[in-house]
Design goal:
Chain lengths: ~575, ~575
Amino acid sequence: MRSSKYLLATQKETPSDAEIVSHQLMLRAGMVRKLASGLYTWLPNGLRVLSKVEQIVREEMNASGSIEIHMPTVQPSDLWQETGRWDKFGPELLRFKDRHSRDFVLGPTHEEVVTELVRREVNSYKQLPLNLFQIQAKFRDEVRPRFGVMRSREFLMKDAYSFHLSDECLQSTYDEMYAAYCRIFERLGLEYRPVLADTGSIGGSVSHEFHVLAESGEDAIVFSDNSDYAANIEKAEALAPAGERPAPSQEMQEVATPNAKTIAELVEQFDIKVEQTVKTLIVKASEESEHSLIALILRGDHELNEIKAENLTEIASPLEFASEEEIRAAVGAGPGSLGPVNLPMPVIVDRAAAHCSDFGAGANVDDKHFFGINWERDVVLGEVADLRNVVEGDPSPCGSGNLSIKRGIEVGHIFQLGDAYAKSMNAAVLNEQGKNQTLTMGCYGVGVSRIVAAAIEQNNDKYGITWPDAIAPFKLAIVPMNMHKSHRVQEVASKLYEEAKQRGIDVLFDDRKERPGVMFADIELIGIPHVIVIGDRSLDKGVIEYKNRRSGEKVEVAVEQIFDQF
Amino acid sequence: MRSSKYLLATQKETPSDAEIVSHQLMLRAGMVRKLASGLYTWLPNGLRVLSKVEQIVREEMNASGSIEIHMPTVQPSDLWQETGRWDKFGPELLRFKDRHSRDFVLGPTHEEVVTELVRREVNSYKQLPLNLFQIQAKFRDEVRPRFGVMRSREFLMKDAYSFHLSDECLQSTYDEMYAAYCRIFERLGLEYRPVLADTGSIGGSVSHEFHVLAESGEDAIVFSDNSDYAANIEKAEALAPAGERPAPSQEMQEVATPNAKTIAELVEQFDIKVEQTVKTLIVKASEESEHSLIALILRGDHELNEIKAENLTEIASPLEFASEEEIRAAVGAGPGSLGPVNLPMPVIVDRAAAHCSDFGAGANVDDKHFFGINWERDVVLGEVADLRNVVEGDPSPCGSGNLSIKRGIEVGHIFQLGDAYAKSMNAAVLNEQGKNQTLTMGCYGVGVSRIVAAAIEQNNDKYGITWPDAIAPFKLAIVPMNMHKSHRVQEVASKLYEEAKQRGIDVLFDDRKERPGVMFADIELIGIPHVIVIGDRSLDKGVIEYKNRRSGEKVEVAVEQIFDQF
């Protein structure tokens, strides 16, 4: 491609409305443009990357035995009514009526449509297992789309669905998908980790997420330093502290704490360690509970894990915190003065908080705390559960090593769904015994457009993007210096351009009449991994310059040896 | 691909709701399944064909210098309000509100979005010309979707848009697109014709349609038998008959015609030739006209060309016929007794009707006709225009040869749009003189999914589809006979399958435990062009059978020579 015949669309200024580096660089490098909130046009530099990611995903899905199909984006509502998701799905599900006033949705996912297809096409165990995938634009009407294509409303997704008659068969396809995903991210050239994940609202039993590692990642993922264990922090179990709870050594006393509404203020103003405080969070109980509110007790330095909390049957899901008014009405004190002693509602205590002795907590009276509280002596220790996020250094739940924490961007998710969809949609086939048997399903997603943003979060420097070769918009840039004044430079550059094309190298020939500085800045910004610079000064010496974008390394080589450099 | 690991999804029965052969065969050959009215899932056999068509289109667009981008499917309404199409576009434009009650459309076409992009990104004549394309699922909410993917609501389209500062530059890109389209249809292996087309409601000056020829085609296209002239019948000019109008030889007389309400009845009941009759059609006048109705006069054997009529400034567009009540109120007679004599409204006479002498027509009194009418003597001949469809044998409007008529399916359309969109959206750049100048545009569409159906309409026989090699779902089928009983057959078949894959041949290995008859029927139905049959009887002779699907030709060849056959 010649720059002069191309839409490079680079920008010097960092757009003010782009909060994260991938969004800024995608705008500056001419990869995307915003059409409306959460809707982006992919410009040539962006689409070239997106297509390369898409093609790697497709090839590895094909290699894994999954079969490509293509379902409509527009889906009739009746299927969503069959599974109950017409009511359950929130306003992220975009609904509309067609010209005949029939209800449709703009597909955010395709479990219903693919199950409808399979219940019609598959009648016998002989046709199973079956694993179908598609790569398609999806729509999710996010309340606050942001971060460019990282969280857009229209996005490109690979979604696959597998169908089986036994859990063993599902497990086997699940393992194949896990392996295919590893191959995909390896080929993309990204640092990634598969981690155990919560199955959450999708249901099912087993689930893994695939994360691209990046400091800016929204998710915390945890690893054992001595085993393969890796999990989303949402899922990672926090073990109970080792050993017995220390015996009480202090008397419980009431302390006036008028200026301490938070744990941080308490620790600052009084002689008490944060590990010897607990905090009390009041949440709504589930409909099954006989109470309306439940208190969660965590150690002062620990964070509530909302997923763990809402997975408890007593607690409403999604998790909902009581308002200050509701707390005052129930307890008679504000949220800054709560504690387990004399609390008029059921209490669930985190494993670490349950291990505390001689600890401080609010007295359920405004501006008062108790210090020197001890479980069982001063307050009954009721239900104990894992309620907190693990922290760096916690023992690994696998039993080997300690945990470290990194940030990740979720770009893939695989699920063992079980029969949730097949049952409600009555998807069954004749088994080997000639009896009707409900199918069991897996589903497997990759956020194709999100991978592009995640790759940039992981691979950038102050000059722009540092693409891995596999997904760079071009593999090679040819930058001639003052070509329009030097016939020799023009001749060498054009010859190398033709040769690169013949070798099947994806090459950008920057033949614009621009100053070298402008050309270098653009090439570095859009992140072409290999750069050839051709100028009269080096040609005088019989060489040209090769520059590696990622390492920054420059070497002078003879013209005829240039293609050995990369 | 092994059949046993694939979703072949063939059906024996012809689906009752499929009216045309391509729709029937796409269902039977496991290519598509209907999800809802006008919404189809592409199964593996269909998607393989669709992807091959898509890839050929992409390659030729790239080769022509067009640059691929990808715009959102969901488009904000404000752009459609800018061009006025928010009001002008009918209910085919699917409109909906997002969760914040903002108006959006599901894109049927992207003139607005691409013009918005270009007016932001392109500021200088130096960036022009620019030709951008995308390949994308589009949505048009057809009132009556039918014929499967031939007229579906969601469909795959290649749309391209070019931007220029002069008509010469637009013409040059238009010519490149014309040539690219010819290459596309040649590579697809389809019999096609580019024809002159009406620019219609899109506006602009020059337009060509690309038709796949098929007897079942909805469109009539006309050709000169002595030149390159070809046009959609909507566009083909009907020349005035040669020579002077014959002089009157009869007196005008009134005839009672109580049982002749149509030209056919008139000709049957009276001694008059159909070429000596005229028919009178009453249509609504345009708002510019001072009348509300206008009469169109055509020879009795000719058909009104509605496009030609509505292109006349006096006539309402879209064309609207007067109702029987309106006709009676204006004329005092019903539609079966109309004629030019004593007609109380303006008349536009077709060129052929204007050449008639001694002709018959209704008397504008129920159950009465005049015979022996002559223009100017009996009734003033006012405006004469080209109003009719050409017929087989008409002189070609190019001046050379006579016209023949074939049926075609429109699969591509290219337009010189001019400044219609650029003007209303204020898309301008600085020209070489440093002045702001409005852009001029072209647009270029290919119905990618429609091509699949059109190719089948053109290429089928009683056994199924006879694909051209370039777009067959597989190029080669390997059909082993009783493989599960013969180790030798299994060995040869597996070896040839591996060799075909190594040679990069798209191959289907039918390894199902089915009777040979079932396998042959499926392979012929889905239309794999080259078939290798392996059985013990031929292996005894040291040969295998090669069959060509299109020609039906069978030959026996030595195993090691099989890949020389195709």
